[in-house]
Amino acid sequence: MKRTVLIAVLILSAWAPSRADEGMWLPALISRRIDDMGAKGAHLSAEDIYSINRASLKDAVVLFGSGCTGELVSDSGLLLTNHHCGYSFIQRHSSVEHDYLKDGFWAGCRRDELPNPGLTVSFLERMEDVTAAVLAGYDESMPEAARDSIVARNSAALIKHASDPSKGVKARVEALYYANQYYLFVYRVYRDVRLVGAPPSSIGKFGGDTDNWMWPRHTGDFSIFRIYADADNNPADYSPENVPYVPRKFFRINRGGVKDGDFTLVYGCPGSTREYVMSEEVRYIGEVSDPRKIALRTLRLDIQKKYMAQSQAVRIQYSSKNANVANAWKKWQGESGGIRRLGTVAAKQEYERRFEQWAKGTRYEGLMARLGALYARREPYYLAYEYLNETVRSIEILRFASGVRTALKAGRPVQGLADSFFKDYFQPIDEETFAALMNAFGKDMPEDFQPEYFKRKLASYGSIEAWRDDLFARTLFTDRARVCALDSPEGLSGDPALEMFDAFDSWYTQSLLPVIRDVAKELKQANREYMKAQMEFEPQKEFYPDANLTLRVAYGKVAGYSPADAVQYAPVSTLKGIMEKDNPDVFDYDVPQALRDIYAAGGCENQPVCFLATNHTSGGNSGSPVLDADGNLVGINFDRVWEGTMSDLVFDPDYCRNISLDIRYLLFVVERIGGAAWLLDEMVFTY
Fold first, then answer.
1. How many other C-beta atoms can be found within 10 angstroms of the C-beta atom of residue 252?
2. Where in the chain is the domain with CATH 2.40.10.120?
3. How many CB atoms lie within 10 A of CB 535?
4. Interhelix angle for 513-537 vs 344-359, to 10°?
5. Annotated catalytic residue: which of 74, 289, 320, 622?
6. From residue 123, how far is each of 71, 72, 170, 268 by CA, in Å?
7. For the chain, does the N or the C end have fewer beta carbons within 10 angstroms?
């Protein structure tokens, strides 16, 4: 009875009238949003967006790899996603002789398309509310451990029943609303995905770290892949005999483009948001965690960039690594700044004061105090854990040493692991990074939160630099030949790289993890209660589920914004802006000569490049299709504006904007830069 009432509260509150363009909506329940979407300009029905009975827009959207989104644009499995989503695969095919990162890659025909072992794309076949089945046998009087056991057992049974590995069908049960609700997601996973085309990085990453998260943006952030299947259109491992996948649905492309005020719909897999946490969590993120991590990553980035600027080979080796480090680094800057600007902590504290007044005399009385005490207990331990990740676990040679030992213990050969590591490893970067990060660890971590091993080593060597020099001189993991000669883990125990990794790992396991784990268990239960309580406290408020890399719909409109006094950004950037930034002396702004020549010939200065909209997006939405009012493709989402990156915690309609590649620029680059017009012949256009 209590569960039935809770589910009713969840449904009623989750589908209350929306505020601005905030929200990441479950496609299976989109019928409850369709009137609001129509009022904002959409011409789509709920069945157009999500259906299990006929082809719908969901059938043209995939989870690309394990953290991006992609979309189908032809009846032959042609797939678009972001350049940064395909970046690591483009890099794997690159070398000094064939620098596809720098020069781009364009298959001349299907025979030239390049396989990518390990890359998968996952189509959502259906989603289903399974809350009652997951909680079957549970009573609120039971302890939390019993609940966890019941949820795990029931979820496993649901997953087993829904999965069919022989046909590539996999299932997951995901908790929504802090485990007040559960959904089953069933996917069909394709394993043969080939690289078809990618622009040169001077287009695909134009602006680089300088423009990352910023507007105006002029980045041609796309790459093109193709899905292959067996003769029956089913998932299969790579084989030359496989054929292009035939989708149930693919997107038509609107060559007419977008203009200010147009309706937009983003259909993708946002990764993680925390819209409903209490003020102490937001304070920790904005005032403690983000600033500390920004400082540590600045050290790493400065070292990498110094050496990358000196060598093309090192630039290729570290391009993907550098981009991965920089992405969160800049996002955290915008996030912490947005939290301060909006006064989010104070606003949540005021909300919590009102909540506490309402909660008096109810089962929720004292809940805020309990949550606050848990966060206070966790903070120093969790900060030490984050420092461990950003320092010791960011030193490449230590991670490699641990990976080799793991492979040897499992009886796996290590040559492939070694080949992959040394292909993209430059020891001077790692040595300088070691010194910078471990000095920061010693300076920033309170003595009570420093491992005894660290203190002993520092006392023994006298400096981090001396410790580093000895470690790199003695470890065998800097020598590819010695690593490849290993056939068992015997004799590795004395290696200084493994010794250091193990010492810090033991410190984490023995000193940090027990507290973090215990607090996490209590926080899990307390946050579940708090989520339920918030819905009862404000039953008319909109409560969409936090993102968790499952398929969602977000909708809004094309719109600019004003980030500061007397500054107003237009919502569309053009090729003219690229040429205004063009500078051969600055790596991020050195455009291809072919693009300069096309521009100099005239007639394309107003070619649209990117646009802004008010859709609520997050990490994981990279590569998501941006659709017009009729469900036609007008863009590919790839970023948010820097001032709005706090949208994972709080959405501000004045600042939160998603940045998308205008599909017209993709077509322009494919045809006029890539010379791959044959790909356009596969697509279907509307105007």
1. 17
2. 2-120+191-270+549-561+571-686
3. 20
4. 70
5. 622
6. 10, 11, 10, 11
7. N
CATH class of 2-120+191-270+549-561+571-686: mainly beta
List pLDDT tens digits, range 291-306. 999 999 999 999 999 9
**Neighbouring residues of 306: CB distance < 8 A, sequence distance ≥ 6:** none
Residue 202: name the closest of 321, 318, 319, 108 by CA.
319
Cβ atoms of residues 349 and 654 within 8 Å: no
Contacts of 460-466 with CB under 8 Å at 24 or more apart are 464/434, 464/435, 464/438, 464/439, 465/435
Q: pLDDT at position 17, please?
A: 40
pLDDT at 320: 80
**In this structure, what are the phi and psi dihedrals at residue 302, rounded to the nearest 5 degrees?**
-60, -40
Determine which one of 83, 84, 218, 616 is catalytic: 84
Calpha distance 63→549 (Å, rounded):
8
Dihedral angle of Cα 364, 365, 370, 371, to the nearest 10 degrees: 50
- First-to-final CA distance of the chain: 53
CA distance 136 to 100: 53
Q: How many residues does the chain have?
A: 687
Total Cβ atoms within 10 A of residue 432:
19
Helices and strands counted in the chain (H then E): 26, 22
Question: In the predicted model, what is the mean pLDDT of the chain?
Answer: 95
> Is 511 a known active-site residue?
no
Q: What is the SS3 assignment for 51-108?
A: CCCCCCHHHHEEEECCCEEEEECCCCCEEEECHHHHHHHHHHCCCCCCCHHHHCEECC
Outline where 21-99 has alpha helix (H).
34-39, 46-49, 83-92
Whether 320 is a known active-site residue: answer no
Structure tokens at 578: 């690229």
| Element of type H or E holding 122 | strand 121-129
Report the alpha-carbon distance of residue 656 to residue 635 in Å, rounded: 18
Residue 105 DSSP code: E
Q: How would you classify the pairing of strands 253-254 and 685-686?
A: parallel
Whether residue 648 lies in the annotated active site? no
Strand (E) or helix (H) holding 396 = helix 396-409
Which tens digit of pLDDT belongs to each residue from 386-399?
999 999 999 999 99
Q: Name the pLDDT band for 3 (thresholds 50, 70, 90).
A: very low
- Partners of 113 in beta bridges: none
Q: How confident is the model at residue 586 (pLDDT cuts 50, 70, 90)?
A: confident
Which of these is catalytic: 192, 221, 262, 290?
A: 221
Residue 316 binned pLDDT confidence (cut-offs 50, 70, 90): confident
Which neighbouring-strand residues pair with 610? 573, 661
Alpha-carbon gap, residue 642 to 212, rounded angstroms: 8
- 86: Cα separation from own chain's centroid: 13
pLDDT digits (tens, 9 = 90+) for 276-286: 999 999 999 99
The string of pLDDT tens digits covering residues 45-89 is 999 999 999 999 999 999 999 999 999 999 999 999 999 999 999
